[in-house]
Amino acid sequence: MQTRSELTLIRSFLDSDRRAIVTAILASIVSGASSALLIAFIGKQFVRTEPFGMQSIALFAVLLILSVATNLYASKVLIEASSEHSYSLRMALCRRIVSTGYERIEKIGSPRLIAMLSEDLTDVAVAFTRIPVLVTNSTRVFFCIVYLLWMTPLAMTLLLLLSLPVIYFQILLYRRAKVHLQVLLPIRDRRYSLYVMLTSGIKELLVDRLTRVGFFTNQLEENARKFKFAQQKSFMANQYAANW
Q: How far apart are CA 87 and CA 171, in angstroms?
């Protein structure tokens, strides 16, 4: 669900600090595996007749601490790496804008550049900080599936087969969300353009009441209304996919 500029930013983030990304992924795998073992351990303890011993309590504590600590460590590594790269990339983009010719800037459009410097970089950086959650949950699900296959192979096989249409419908929902996002982006760029016009032409707007009313009613308000409805549809489409 990324635009072309965001895909470029993602590749840039991936190339920026591979060591940090690999470290975070490995820590997330450990977190997911330990949390899956914790689930299996709890399930096993429920069917026991004898009370908990110190060994069981110690194992529970170790698995719990390991799961939380490795997940937090993975998040810390990626937050530091992504924020550092965002800073470097933002400054590099500013330097390129300063050294780029006026015609090139006009061709790209200042609203697009502002959007890239503000929202796109921030969105991609935030997305990278969610990698530990994705890897941890995927690892947890994988080990839980293996455990359930070992416990009840037939039931787990049927569950996996039933999950195929669920996954297919999930893909359809994300495709729908992507369509809404593509509608939202041009409206967002237009919004930045209007903000530039508002700040650069503030003197004219203050002097001429008719121009001011026309600008606010026909352009700013109309764009804000379109953006509101497009954003609502885009957010809800993503929520449908996430909840499914």
A: 34
What secondary structure, in 3-state letters, does the chain show?
CCCHHHHHHHHHHHHHCHHHHHHHHHHHHHHHHHHHHHHHHHHHHHCCCCCCCHHHHHHHHHHHHHHHHHHHHHHHHHHHHHHHHHHHHHHHHHHHHHHCCHHHHHHHCHHHHHHHHHHHHHHHHHHHHCHHHHHHHHHHHHHHHHHHHHHCHHHHHHHHHHHHHHHHHHHHHHHHHHHHHHHHHHHHHHHHHHHHHHHHCHHHHHHCHHHHHHHHHHHHHHHHHHHHHHHHHHHHHHHHHHHC
User: What is the structure's pLDDT at 65?
Assistant: 92
**C-alpha angle 123-132-129 in degrees, rounded to nearest 5:** 20
Which is higher by pLDDT, 168 or 12?
Answer: 168
Query: Residue 5 and residue 194: Cα distance in Å, rounded?
Result: 21
Q: Which of 43-52, 55-64, 146-155 has the lowest mean pLDDT?
A: 43-52
Task: Tell whether the torsion through CA atoms of 171, 173, 177 and 180 is positive or negative.
Answer: positive
Polymer length in residues for the chain: 244
Q: Is the dihedral of CA 53, 59, 65, 71 positive or negative?
A: negative
Is the predicted pLDDT of residue 5 greater than 70, yes or no? Answer: no
Q: Per-residue pLDDT for 68 more than 80?
A: yes
**Mean pLDDT across the chain:** 79
Is pLDDT at 9 greater than 70 in this prediction?
Answer: no
Enter the tokens of residue 48.
């026991």
